[in-house]
Every structure is written in C-alpha cells, then in structure tokens.
Amino acid sequence: MPDNARPRVVALEEHYQDLELVKHYAPGDGTRNPQIIARLEDLGEERLKAMDDAGVDLQVLSHAQPSTQKFDPETAVRLAREANDRLHRSIQANPQRFAAFGILPTPDPKAAAEELERIVTKLDFKGAMVHGLTHGRFLDEKQFWPIFERAQALDVPIYLHPGKPSDVVIDAYYKDYAKDYPHILGAGWGYTVEAATQAVRLVLSGALDAYPKLKFILGHFGEGLPFLLWRIDYSFSRPGNKPGLKFRDLFTEHFYVTTSGNFSDTALLCTVQEMGVDRILFSIDYPFVPNEPNWINWLHRVALSADDRAKIMGGNAERLLKL
Question: Would you say residue 5 lies in a domain?
Fold first, then answer.
C-alpha cells in the first residue's frame, strides 16, 4: 500500500449466525428481530456493501451468542466442528474481505483445545471466541486450562464475548426491571458485568502466570475495566489479600480491548491512557450496531496522532492476528 494511502480498516467483533447451529438452541436463546437475523445470516452482497459503505476492508467474523457454551459435550463438539467448516467455506468466496474467530466446544475442554488447533492450523482462523459461561462455570476454572495451553502454543487470542447472565444472577439482580428494560440483561448492563467478571477472575486465577504469553480480547472497551484499573489494582494491594498480585500489570500485558459498540470519545481516551494505544482494536459489533461511516469518522475526530489512529484502525489487529 502506498505511504499516502489510508490505513486498512479491520473490524474484529463482527457477527454471523450458523443456521444449523441455531436450530439446537433452547427456546429464548439467541432471540432476535428478523432484520438482525437476516444480516447475521448474510455473508454475501449485502454485508459486503455495508462494509464498503462504512469503509471497512476486512471483517473478522465470529458467531453471535450463545454459540456452543450451553450444549452437552458431544453435541457441542459436533456442532462446533461443522459450523467452523461451513464458515471456512464461506470465507473462501471472499478471502480478502473476511477472516474468522472460530467456535469452541468448551463443554469438552480437551476437545475444545483440539478444535482450536484444527481451526488455526487447517482453516487459518485467527483465534476463537467464547460466549460467557459454560454451564454456569467461568473460564478461569482449571478444567478449561488445556484451552489456554493450546492458545499459547498456537500464539492466538481468545475473544471473551459476553453471554446472558446466569438465572441466579438474573433473579437476584435484574428481574425487577427485566420486563420493562430487557436490555438490562444484555448490552445495557448484564453483559458487561458477566464479561468483566470473567476477565477479573482470569487475572486472579493464576492462569496468566502459568501461561505467560496467553492473550485475550475484550469488547466494548474492555467491559469498563480500563476505567476501573487503578481502583482494582489498589484494592487488591491492600492487606488481607493474597500478596504479590500485580493486577494492572497482568491485565494490560495479556488483554486487548476493542471499540465494539462503544464509540465514546472519553472511553477511547481513557483506554489509551490506561492501557496504551497498542492494545486497542477497532470493531463495530455488526449487525447489532450497523456499519456506518460515522465510526471511521469518529476515529478521525478524536484527538489522536495519525500513527495511533492507524494502529487502532487496523495495524494492531494485523500484528495480533498475523493478517
């Protein structure tokens, strides 16, 4: 690309939906309006036009939640493998415009590690996405560490996407308002709490010490954690906590965050100051957030240098995902 050309724009929390996989969802899982469903299922002309109109050169595709985290192990393994193969075939029609994070059958952690290796080495996927809890269990629990071991060996990231809060949490925290404000369970608040908790637990678990090159991605500007890093780090350094934890160091070393669904000037600048520009990746969250030129224009409006802007638009993703 010539020196004066615009940076390649890579968006990497951009969702699709596999028709065969969603047939196995429980009632209520993945419920969406018909317009969103149509956009999720399209990997052709309409999506490409939306990308062109918004100035997006490459989408890293990932399945919409809840994916395979709630299935029984045998079903999860079969459906994940089949869905990953179908996604790979779809990408071959436009390999210059699409890449992918694969589906992992986390109900069977050993099989999930094997599937991660298969999709990276055989299908050229760029990592994998996990959606929330697996049958109520957080990803930091040691039964899931074989996935981390394999991700480190393959040098690929795991994208921690939010999932619907557990029924226990919904009952205790959200049920009074869920009828009138159903998005309190999702992007309005519940998703943020679940994904941020997942990340905090991973830092506390020792997994990042055991696998010092492990890499995670969090959407939505890190589910609010960059804003809270100083306070979290300070709190865990107080007497009474297990000594020696360097929360901020571990988080900023092992986590990348994306702009998906959060186009706030102040959130961006806060994250740049707390984590550094090299840890920020551009995402839109299509089709839950529509592709619009406004998102690229937003990056040009915020007070960033041209080099830093280019890193966020695609340079950081190219380096992290080896595009």
Answer: no
Percentages of the chain per state (helix, strand, coil), in multiples of 5:
50, 10, 35
Q: Which residue out of 18, 108, 140, 285 is catalytically annotated?
A: 285
pLDDT for the residue numbered 4: 53
The verdict on residue 3 lying in a domain is no
Segments of the chain scoring below 50 in pLDDT: 1-3
User: What CATH number is given to the structural domain containing 24?
Assistant: 3.20.20.140
- Domain-embedded: residue 137: yes
Q: How many other C-beta atoms lie within 10 A of the C-beta of residue 26?
A: 9
Number of independent structural domains in the chain: 1
Range of the domain at 272: 10-321
- Positive or negative, the CA dihedral 183, 189, 192, 197 is negative
The closest alpha carbon to 319, from 277, 291, 264, belongs to: 277
Residue 310: count of CB within 10 angstroms of its CB: 17
Distance CA 8, CA 300 (A): 14
Helices 225-236 and 247-254: angle between axes, nearest 10 degrees: 150
Instruction: Look up residue 25 and give its two tokens.
Output: 């969802």
Instruction: Please report the pLDDT score of residue 127 as a whole number.
Output: 98
User: Does the annotation mark 285 as catalytic?
Assistant: yes
Domain-located, residue 66: yes
Q: Rounded to whole angstroms, what are the CA distances from 68 to 79, 87, 184, 222?
A: 8, 15, 23, 23
